[in-house]
Specification:
By secondary structure, the chain is mainly α. It is built from four helices and no strands. 7% of the residues are buried.
């Protein structure tokens, strides 16, 4: 059995093989591209959720800090899961320490001034931490 292949037959077979190889490579490239696109989109959504949670906490601390109940409720909500661990820990520690100040005597002027100073220092530190995360989203 002898094959009589002409030049045109050889070129046709070769071009068919090249077409199949380039199709496989294109599909492989598209899969990698789509996977990277999905990763980028998830990262962007995470940054947006983090930004929203940080902005909400920042508003609570800046506008209405007398109502710590609202801040505690926010920390227990699913939205607060997007807060950076450092910020979350700092706020929880601050609120725990604030409880100790609230247990002290309200009628002692020195204790009242000490409590107000502690609140202002704590708010300043937390706001600074939040502002740092909002201006540097790739910090983690």
């Amino acid at each position: 059995m002898q094959l009589n292949l002409t030049l045109q037959d050889i070129l046709t077979i070769g071009l068919g093989i090249i077409a199949l190889v380039s199709l496989v490579l294109t599909i492989n490239y598209r899969k990698k591209y789509l996977k990277q696109l999905e990763i980028n989109l998830n990262t962007r959504l995470l940054h947006e959720d983090r930004k929203k949670a940080l902005s909400e906490l920042y508003g609570m601390i800046t506008d209405n800090f007398d109502n710590t109940f609202e801040i505690k409720n926010f920390l227990d909500s699913p939205e607060s899961l997007y807060l950076p661990d450092v910020t979350r820990t700092r706020v929880v520690f601050f609120l725990d320490e604030l409880k100790k100040y609230n247990k002290d005597d309200y009628y002692n002027l020195d204790k009242i001034k000490e409590r107000e100073k502690y609140i202002e220092d704590g708010k300043r530190k937390i706001r600074g931490n939040i502002e740092d995360y909002l201006t540097n989203p790739n910090r983690d």
